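To: structure subgroup
Subject: Chain for Friday's discussion

All,

I'm putting the inputs and outputs inline so they're searchable in the archive.
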Amino acid sequence: MRLAHKTIWITGASSGVGEGMANVFHREGAELIISARRRAELERVKKGCTASGADVHVLPFDITDQAQREAATREVLQEFDRVDVLVNNAGIGQRSAAKDTLLEVDRRIMEVDFFGPVALTKLVLPRMLEQGGGHLVVTSSVAGKHAVPHHSAYCAAKHALHGYFDTLRVEHYDDNIHVTMLVIAGIKSNVFRHALTGDGSEYGASDWDDGNGMSAEECADRVVDGILNRDYELVIGIEPALQAMQIRDKDPVEFVQRMAGMARWMTDE
C-alpha cells in the first residue's frame, strides 16, 4: 500500500474528486481525516472506505467559518501526532457572466476557493514545520491556467491559488514542505450542479455536468502518483478538456477567439 503510515486530511471530501481521493487513499493504506460541511455525506464516504484497516476520522466544518476552521484544526492536532498531507480540495464553482454576477457572489467564491484553503494551511503549516516536513496538495483547475467564460471569479480564485502556493513552495523549499497543484478538468463530479449563478443561487443539473468525464477514482490514482513523486504541478483530465491549454500556449489569439465563441454560445444557451 503506497500511502501506508501517512495521515492525510482531505477537505471537500463528501463528493466528487474529494470522495474519490478518500476511497483511493484509504485503499492505499492512509489514515484519513475527511471534512466537508455535511456530516451525513461524510459518514457515507467513510462507509465506502472499506479496502484497508486504516482509520477514517469524520470531521465536518465550514471552511469559510473562522471559529469552525480553528476548532477543527485543534481537534486534528490534538488527536494526530502528524499531518503528513493536507489536501485543500474544498471549493465551489460558478456559472454566470461577470457583468451579471453580484459582487457578494464574487466574494463568496473567493472565500471558499481561495481564502479558505489559505487560512487552513496557515493553521496546519506550523505542525508540518515542527514535524520536519509535510505535503500540501491543492485542487486547482484548467481555470487556474486560462480564462473560461462565465467563470470569472472561479478563474480568479484558482489563479490566486497558484500564485500563493507556488510562492509557499519557494519560501519553504529548505523546510521539506512540498506543494502539488492539481490542474484538473473533465472529472466526473457535481461541480456544475452546485455552482453559483450571478445572484448566488445554485445552477442545478445541466448538460455541463461531467457525467462522461474521467472517474474521480482514476483521478485520485494519478494524485497518489503525484504525491509520491512530489510533483510541483499535476495536469489530470480527458484530452478534450485539456485542449484549450495547448491552444493558449501555441496561439493566444486563436485561444481568445475560441473562448469568445464559447462565451457567445453560453450566453445564447
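Points worth raising on Friday:
The chain has one domain: 7-239.
The radius of gyration is 18 Å.

D.
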